[in-house]
Write a structure and sequence with these properties.
- The chain is of the alpha+beta class and 431 residues long.
- The protein contains 22 helices and eleven strands.
- The strands form three sheets. Strands 3-4-5-2-1-8-9 form a seven-stranded mixed sheet. A two-stranded antiparallel ribbon has the order 6-7.
- Helix 13 packs across helix 16.
- It is globular, with a radius of gyration of 28 Å.
- The relative contact order is 0.06.
Length: 431
């Protein structure tokens, strides 16, 4: 029997359940991660009990009834959550997301049978060892994502499983088994019934995965259902040397891109407006500005966080416009974009060029120069000026003229026409 490590918090919950005569198992993702040699981020347990029996057995802990109607309780031990779910069976899924009914029983075998993929349908307990009814261990070794039993049935029950399959393939670097992949393509349209927030969460993890490029390219038709902004890119060949359509060209750089969601989304969508604004040949007037607008609309539709939307749209808008490698040009860019976004923009441009075998030495020099300016405290924002609004107010300036004069001084400092010292700024103010 293979012995797996279990966290102290999960072990304490299992011991409390056992003391009440309730069998329990570590299930799903934690078992998969442990068998892959990784420490689980979350701990999920299945218990052979009703929710009320679980609550009674775990009453000495802090409990949160996160999904009590579905038999789930979260146990908090030293602020560490352990999710415990009663072994259950499920009725039909008429809304293609949630079961119409849930029944509680004491069979771990039936509980595992209702899960999505073989690698997520294994259970472990220190007493009985590993329970693997559907070949999950074999699929782990073969690096395969495979539905339990009939894949069409699994996806018709819950369409979100389609995106989960793509996410696992991207994050784990596994391939999707043929029948499972066929069902994904066939039933992709059912994703329209899934909430925007759920789609955004799965898409974000997919995009950040090590294996994102082949998944995004092989299952482009599926991604297009929840992300229609990229649909015009499919089959649009804008440059012969790219050796593929605009979607393949746009997703290729993700293979070597930083794991920052705005950067990766911007790489994917930087040219999304080219099929829309194309005039002739390779002339795409205003595609960056139009692309930023289309990107904002697409990300808002999926209810991405406001900060992600803002950063991604700025990167798309400026994706082909790095400044010259001069003090004033760099400081102007830092002022307009902010430090983080400007550095992300350089990373994005460098990744794009490198993925197509182009020279990036000029970007490396620009980044080095930028970091030098930041390190020495070069002024590019109002808060860094040696004169403040209060100083101007003391000098008799009022209302709007305070802001206008501060902006004029900042422009002079950025352009190198005035040093950022109090006396120099005062002299500049009197000119």
């Amino acid at each position: 029997m293979e012995h797996l490590w279990i966290s102290e918090s999960a072990k304490a919950v299992m011991e409390a359940l056992a003391h009440a005569g309730i069998s329990s198992w570590v299930v799903g993702g934690p078992v998969r991660d442990l068998l892959r040699g990784e420490i689980p981020q979350d701990w999920d347990l299945a218990a052979a009990a009703t929710p009320e029996e679980m609550k009674h057995a775990l009453s000495r802990f802090s409990l949160v009834e996160t999904g009590i109607q579905h038999g789930t309780i979260t146990v908090l031990i030293d602020h560490t959550p352990v999710e415990v779910t009663a072994c259950r069976g499920e009725g039909a899924y008429h809304d293609r997301r949630h079961p119409d009914s849930v029944t509680f029983h004491r069979s771990i075998e039936e509980d595992l049978a209702r899960r999505d993929f073989t690698i997520n349908a294994m259970a472990y307990s220190p007493d009985s060892g590993l329970l693997d009814l559907f070949g999950g261990m074999q699929d782990l070794k073969a690096r395969v994502i495979r539905c339990i039993r009939n894949p069409q049935d699994r996806f018709l029950e819950d369409a979100l499983r389609i995106l989960r399959a793509l996410r696992f393939a991207s994050v784990l670097g596994y391939r999707i088994e043929e029948k499972t992949a066929a069902a994904i393509h066939t039933l992709a349209g059912n994703l329209e019934a899934i909430s925007a927030e759920r789609c955004a969460a799965e898409l974000s993890k997919l995009v950040l995965g090590e294996n994102a490029v082949p998944v995004l390219q092989e299952f482009a038709d599926v991604v297009a259902v929840i992300f229609p902004v990229m649909r015009p890119m499919l089959g649009f060949y804008h440059r012969e040397e790219h050796g593929g359509d605009l979607w393949r060209h746009s997703t290729a750089p993700l293979a070597c891109a930083p794991k920052k969601l705005p950067v990766r989304l911007a790489l994917m969508l930087r040219d999304c407006a080219k099929p829309v604004v194309q005039l002739c040949g390779e002339d795409y007037p205003g595609h960056a500005e139009r692309g930023a607008e289309m990107t904002e609309e697409a990300l808002r539709r999926l209810k991405f966080p406001v900060s992600v939307i803002r950063q991604t749209c700025v990167l798309v808008r400026y994706h082909s416009a790095l400044p010259q490698n001069t003090d004033s040009a760099i400081l102007r860019a830092l002022h307009e974009l902010g430090e983080e976004t400007f550095l992300d923009l350089m990373d994005m441009r460098e990744t794009d060029r490198r993925s197509h075998g182009e020279d990036t030495s000029d970007i490396a020099l620009l980044r080095e120069h930028t970091k030098e300016l930041i390190a020495r405290g070069a002024c590019y924002q109002l808060s860094q000026l040696a004169l403040s609004g209060e100083d101007l107010k003391a000098l008799g300036y009022r209302g709007r003229e305070i802001g206008e004069n501060l902006k004029t001084l900042l422009d002079a400092v950025i352009e190198g026409r005035c040093e950022n010292t109090r006396d120099t700024l005062l002299a500049c103010l009197r000119m």
